[in-house]
Amino acid sequence: AIPVINVAGLRALGQENEHRRRKIGGELVAAASEVGFFYVTDHGIQEALLSEARDFAREFFHLPMAAKERLSIREEPSRRGYQFVGENITQGRPDQHEAFDLYRDMPPVTPGGLCTALCDDARH
């Protein structure tokens, strides 16, 4: 079964919510390391934005290979961009999926401080 994790508590600031955030963090780590993927609920992302992202992804991955190659992660010093099937290596084996890595640089965090870093970053 695919784990379903309610992450609403990650947005709860304050020392009194530290235990709750750590519990959710543990659930995320366990799901990622034991199953390999998971669903999240109560993340606060608007459905319209999720729908737009799914539509964009569907459109992008249906492009001809030549178009996707122009956005190859190999050509990008920041290591963001398109990955071919088999290009990403996990535990010494090529993954059997194509992907587009896109992320925002985050400040370094100490263990247990991820939510604080994310929430502080979101406020600015």
What's the total number of strands?
Answer: 6
What is the typical, i.e. mean, pLDDT?
A: 83
Low-confidence sequence ranges = 120-124
Question: Can you write the helix and strand succession as a string?
Answer: EHEHHEEEEH
Distance between the termini: 38 Å
- Specify the oligomeric state: single chain
The major sheet is characterized as:
2 strands, parallel
How would you write the strand order of the largest sheet? 1-2
Helix % is 25-40%
Query: In percent terms, what proportion of residues is strand?
Result: 5-15%
Structural class: alpha+beta
Shape verdict: globular
How many helical stretches? 4
User: Radius of gyration, Cα only, in angstroms?
Assistant: 17 Å
How would you describe what is shown here?
Helices cover 38% and strands 13% of the residues. It contains four helices and six strands; from the N terminus they run E-H-E-H-H-E-E-E-E-H. The protein has helices at 18-34, 47-61, 65-69, 114-123, and strands spanning 4-6, 39-41, 81-83, 89-90, 93-94, 99-101. The strands form three sheets. A two-stranded parallel sheet has the order 1-2. A two-stranded antiparallel ribbon has the order 3-6. Strands 4-5 form a two-stranded antiparallel ribbon.
Structural topology:
Blueprint: E1 4-6, H1 18-34, E2 39-41, H2 47-61, H3 65-69, E3 81-83, E4 89-90, E5 93-94, E6 99-101, H4 114-123
Parallel strand pairs: 1-2
Antiparallel strand pairs: 3-6, 4-5
Name the features.
globular, two-stranded antiparallel sheet, disordered C terminus, 38% helix, 4 helices, two-stranded parallel ribbon, 124 residues, alpha+beta, 6 strands
